[in-house]
Inverse folding.
């Protein structure tokens, strides 16, 4: 694997296919974020980042996560995310890691419709929970810094898990992951043949 | 024997179920605590109101037939969110004729069988009693006049100015 330094030093080494993948999926994510703005915490971003990493690899998934979350942190209708933006991006990278890991475990399966779809949905739901947990902790960190205590973090976590937002986030990621996984598995098989 | 990938998948599903049920439990707990707080606040407020005003809400109403006959209906038990139309129905046992709802409210055309006479500019007109200002003709439709504990209303059957609508009841009425 070539280092990031080498890639930046020799832009010609960056495959145009990778650039296209990152550009197209980042655009789809940001457009769908705007389309789903009325539904709090229900977005295609998590699932698409996961599936890009699953199909094309970790670097592509991570690039889509960084680009789309950065754009959304700046141009969101609710205003710029501010200091919490790096934590949002870091949280989104988790989906790329999970997608890459999932491809190592379940990526070789050919059958689109199988229990593996549910396994992938479950993995996405776990990632959604970790994302919620991490961003709540980050909010507490930014609010109370430098006098942060464990109790304040726990208070923020409890307050953050109010109905229905986080539950909708996890259930939505589970459902979308489950329904989109078969397509991703079939696509992964084709990409590997190319 | 299940493969390793199936094992990881089952573990992922179990952890996801644990996570989702835990989040649902925390969300329910938060909701419960919030409702408990709201309920406690409202209970305190209700106790304060009961100690201040008592438990019964009642209202008085005069029906003046324009021929010297007056009927007082005192201490009518009323419910929160009643309006003058509801109270009139309750007081008269439903002996009210009305049209609805040309101006967003009922328009009373008769009480106890005594009908309005538009050709003679005579109609049932509603009044409200104010401790400081005395009787005053109602400015709103009967559905828009809320009834509170201790409210006093009157219906008078008398003439009105056809242009201004101002009642021209005999002096001293209602």
């Amino acid at each position: 694997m070539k280092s990031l330094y080498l890639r930046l030093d020799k832009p010609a080494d960056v495959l145009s296919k990778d650039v296209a993948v990152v550009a197209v999926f980042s655009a789809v994510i940001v457009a769908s974020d705007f389309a789903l703005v009325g539904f709090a915490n229900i977005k295609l971003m998590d699932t698409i980042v996961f599936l890009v990493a699953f199909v094309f690899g970790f670097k592509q998934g991570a690039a889509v996560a960084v680009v789309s979350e950065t754009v959304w942190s700046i141009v969101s209708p609710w205003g710029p995310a501010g200091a919490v933006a790096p934590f949002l991006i870091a949280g989104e990278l988790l989906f790329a890691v999970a997608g890459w890991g999932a491809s190592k475990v379940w990526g070789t399966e050919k059958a689109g419709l199988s229990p593996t779809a549910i396994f992938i949905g479950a993995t996405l739901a776990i990632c959604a929970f970790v994302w919620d947990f991490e961003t709540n902790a980050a909010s507490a960190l930014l609010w109370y810094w430098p006098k942060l205590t464990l109790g304040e973090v726990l208070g923020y976590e409890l307050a953050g898990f109010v109905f229905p937002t986080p539950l909708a986030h996890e259930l939505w990621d589970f459902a979308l992951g489950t329904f989109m996984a078969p397509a991703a598995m079939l696509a992964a098989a084709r990409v590997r043949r190319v | 024997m299940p493969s390793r990938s199936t094992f990881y998948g089952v573990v992922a599903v179990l952890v996801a179920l644990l996570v989702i049920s835990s989040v649902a439990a925390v969300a329910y707990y938060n909701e419960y605590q919030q409702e408990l707080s709201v309920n406690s606040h409202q209970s305190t407020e209700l106790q304060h109101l009961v100690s201040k005003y008592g438990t019964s809400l009642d209202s008085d109403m005069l029906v003046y037939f324009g021929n010297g006959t007056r009927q007082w209906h005192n201490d009518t038990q009323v419910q929160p969110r009643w309006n003058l139309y509801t109270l009139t129905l309750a007081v008269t046992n439903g002996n009210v004729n009305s049209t609805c709802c040309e101006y967003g409210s009922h328009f009373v055309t008769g009480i106890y069988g005594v009908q309005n006479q538009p050709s003679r500019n005579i109609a049932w007109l509603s009044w409200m009693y104010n401790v400081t200002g005395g009787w005053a003709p109602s400015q709103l439709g009967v559905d828009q006049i809320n009834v509170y504990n201790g409210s006093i209303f009157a219906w008078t059957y008398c003439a009105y100015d056809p242009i201004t609508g101002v009642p021209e009841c005999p002096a001293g009425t209602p």
